[in-house]
Amino acid sequence: MALRARALYDFRSENPGEISLREHEVLSLCSEQDIEGWLEGVNSRGDRGLFPASYVQVIRAPAAEPPPPARYANLPAGGFEPLPPPAAFKPAAQQPPPAAAPEPFPLPPAAGFPFPPAPYSGSYQPSQGSDDDWDDDWDDSSTVADEPGALGSSYPDYEAAGSGASGRYRLSTRSELSLGSRGGHPVGHPHPPGTGGGGGAKSSATVSRNLNRFSTFVKSGGEAFVLGEASGFVKDGDKLCVVLGPRGPEWQENPYPFQCSIEDPTKQTKFKGMKSYIAYKLVPSHTGQQVHRRYKHFDWLYGRLAEKFPVISVPHLPEKQATGRFEEDFISKRRKGLAWWMDHMCSHPVLAQCDAFQHFLTCPSTDEKAWKQGKRKAEKDEMVGANFFLTISVPTGTGADLDLQEVESQVDGFKAFTKKMDESALQLNHTANEFARKQVTGFKKEYQKVGHSFKCLSQAFELDQQAFSAGLNQAIAFTAEAYYAIGDLFADQPRQDLDAVMDLLVLYQGHLANFPDIIHVQKGALTKVKESKRHVEEGKMELQKAEGIQERCNIISFATLAEINHFHKIRVRDFKSQMQHFLQQQILFFQKVIQKLEEALHKYDSV
User: Fold this and answer.
1) Which fold has domain 4-59?
2) 294 labelled as ligand-binding?
3) I need a surface site. Which of 335, 398, 588, 603 has the fewest CB within 10 A?
4) Whole-structure pTM over 0.70, yes or no?
5) Per-residue pLDDT tens for 84-102?
6) Under CATH, to which class is 251-393 assigned?
7) Mean pLDDT computed over 210-228
8) pLDDT of residue 62
9) Three-class SS of 264-304
10) Residue 334 annotated as binding?
11) Alpha carbon 499 to chain centroid distance?
12) What's the CATH number of domain 404-604, 1.10.10.10, 2.60.40.1180, 1.20.1270.60, 3.30.200.20?
């Protein structure tokens, strides 16, 4: 007999591979074994896919039901009151529980108890290549990332919240889970739909949580913030201000702008020459003090910033390379890529003032103790995840309110823009790369073939010993040399113009890869607002609670629009400058070609 299950609650699929459920719907199960809290089956409409195991109850024949285990013999006949679905739980820390963690509520599935939510991790893990592994003398094993939380328990995070323990990124929420007695509801959470909680209608509905705990909206802390679960003390130095500019919301400009040059990459060694690496000299304009940083230091900084700022596009670093790390061409190309990266970091009003970035720029290279202290301070930053959004200050008062439909339209327009720009940037990068390859190999070879042909002709004419033909022979030989030189000019030209264009395109392809996640966070917030409005219209939610959700959504919308405006502003600046440079170099190149041809032409005047 095929396994069947009955849906306890409505579920709307949000990702490929999932299927939607309707309350009381009967489904066919492919297997009774769940995979990290998800089951696979076919709904009444014939769609096959995954759905939360806690949202359904397996239908069993009465005779086939096994007796309850002996250790539950003393439970009340009616069982415990069902817990809310996993989406109603909010982990108290962002650290994932151990893989073999036991269930804190080991009740049999037949009693209708849901499975605990699947663990997730939203932390950025910086890539570590063979050329940039962390050295033992650069850091020790007592970093914050290695401190699991000092619990000594393998229970999931929400169990730890009830026992008073604190994790690395534990948030103090307004609806802390209280698990004082097994089977009772967490304090502050209503009964799940269909269980007939004791409160009135308006207190029985809450905005649902995303079942996909791996989505960017969840991992970034956006969901927790929108639902009002983030609280913390924001210092004045941590505040990020969004202001209304002529183009809409903008990040408040850095009152002390600066630039930073990256120069003189040098090969250095340690461990008596056993370890080699490249160090880059950084000279920030606001300090004038040079420091030396390795690529691994850039990589660490990028990881911290990408984790801290979920609605800001942190520029991508140049890619690593497993071999040829000490070749001159690779070192030069990486330095140029890092220079573009540094320019975008210094130009961003928020990133440029970040404490971790300032520590990276100003900490003396020789003071290892000060570097480690600043590194640990950055890693202990509490204003990450949901708490990051608390640091954002947005305009208030008349004219400062955002129209949700207009915001959604602007974001959708920008989404279409980024898709088209990504496609065109990829095409231009491919075309420029192919054209540069032809200049370096094909064009040089063809011009030198022409030059070689002219040289052969002049050598043939030299067999004529007549004095009046000597001038012609010399002019043709000079023409041959001119074509050889023109071939060399073609081979060298991509370094002057096309390479810089391609470096800029690669940098912007990194930005364009960031924006889908940024847009996903904003879209997720808008979805929660729409859901809360629907609950208010149905009389299931208080207006004040829905307004709080919309207010927090506005903060995310202001930040997203500010980042979009900054992207457009910096894009216009960069592409204007780069296209001017490209055309200027093209003009200089063809002027050099014309000069070579004119010099050859003048040789025939005296023949």
Assistant:
1) SH3 type barrels. (2.30.30)
2) yes
3) 398
4) no
5) 444 444 444 444 444 444 4
6) alpha beta
7) 81
8) 59
9) EEEEEEECCCCEEEEEEEEEECCCCCCEEEEHHHHHHHHHH
10) yes
11) 26
12) 1.20.1270.60
